[in-house]
Amino acid sequence: MSTTLTWLGHSAWRLQTAGTTLLIDPFFTGNPAAATTVDEVAADFIVITHGHGDHIGDAAAIARRTGALVISNFEIIEWLAPQGVQRGHAMNIGGAHSFPFGDLKLTIAHHSSMLPDGSSGGNPCGLLIRLSDGQKIYHAGDTGLFYDMKLIGEAGIDLAILPIGDNFTMGPDDAIRAVQLIGPRRVVPTHFNTWSLIAQDAAAWAARVRSETVAEPVVLAPGASLSL
Ligand code: NI
Ligand code: MN
């Protein structure tokens, strides 16, 4: 089974696996790093980590056009329903469910989750995805460093997607600590360079990953892909 993971800019990722297309945090309109657009992107599933505009982004518009199943926490699925998002699957932290793309479990993330109109977006989440071939992907969402990343790592993570932008999330130093706690086989940075406030030198961070952890760093440009 071939799986392709593509960075669509900021915290948005596309996972193509098992004949399905999954979008994570599809924020393209107003995203200076967007590698696709709300009108052209394909989706069978959309997963949203939390309610902030740079994550929920274009989810409703893409879901209305494509009919994709939207997966997120209970509050976000409830908020999307009156916006014409007819297919929603509500979950919550610690819960797992099997989907055609694999098994998804929501993990904790230390952050906040207010929706763009001020509604409560519930608790922010990270994502643990087990593909049908057994490979495991951990997308941390927006979060600070937390020691339970060690527990998440005990699942045996093949690829970790970690924020390094600082200011709103972990910065480069804490993301190195996160890699040490999680122990993934490979790690890719996300949530950086979208705006100057979260500008980071990803190549320098990757060099630190090589020297300070056992993981292999992979730095992608928006629009670039990785085979799993
Ligand atoms: Ni956020
Ligand atoms: Mn964010």
Gist?
The chain is 20% helix and 27% strand. The protein is an alpha/beta fold.
Description:
This protein has one domain: Metallo-beta-lactamase, Chain A (4-Layer Sandwich). The chain has a 7-stranded mixed beta sheet with strand order 6-5-4-3-2-1-14, with helices on one face. A 7-stranded mixed beta sheet has the order 7-8-9-10-11-12-13. By secondary structure, it is of the alpha/beta class. The longest helix has 11 residues, at about 170-180. The chain has helices at about 55, 60-65, 75-80, 150-155, 170-180, 200-210, and strands at about 5, 15, 20-25, 45, 70-75, 90, 95-100, 100-110, 125-130, 135-140, 160-165, 185-190, 215, 225. The protein binds nickel (II) ion (NI) and manganese (II) ion (MN). Manganese (II) ion binds near residues 11, 142, 168 and 191.
Keywords:
single chain, 228 residues, alpha/beta, Metallo-beta-lactamase, Chain A, seven-stranded mixed beta sheet, 6 helices, 20% helix, globular, binds manganese (II) ion
How many domains would you count in the coordinates? 1
User: In angstroms, what separates the terminal alpha carbons?
Assistant: 9 Å
DSSP helical segment count: 6
Biggest sheet statistics? 7 strands, mixed
Number of DSSP strand runs: 14
Report helical residue fraction.
Answer: 10-25%
Protein structure class: alpha/beta
CATH class: Alpha Beta
Topology pattern, helix = H, strand = E:
EEEEHHEHEEEEEHEHEHEE
What oligomerization state is this entry in?
A: single chain
